Amino acid sequence: MNLPPKVTDRAFERLAEINGTAEQPQALRVAVEGGGCSGFQYDIRLDQPAEDDLVLEKNGQKVIVDTVSLPFLADAVIDFSEELIGARFVIENPNATSSCGCGTSFSI
Prior knowledge:
By secondary structure, the chain is mainly beta. It is built from one helix and nine strands. It has a single domain, classed as HesB-like domain (Hypothetical Protein Aq_1857, Chain: A), CATH 2.60.300.
């Protein structure tokens, strides 16, 4: 049985910083779509939850995954990385058999 993705505390904390004091906080949508140099790519953006989304929540912050993307993200870890070259949300996906150098495209 596949487990849903996990979200690190660091990712939730960064989402809280992004939302700040917004009256209508946005959720972080993590989706998988066809494309990229390896066959699939991640689509990470701010959005509002849809009725059938999986909602992962902590301290009022929400990370959402649509039902089509869920099997591709089973057991994955959604994190936030801050390095000298930039900061971004990253996904450690045990289902990916290979990925490109930029980390946004993968194959299964």
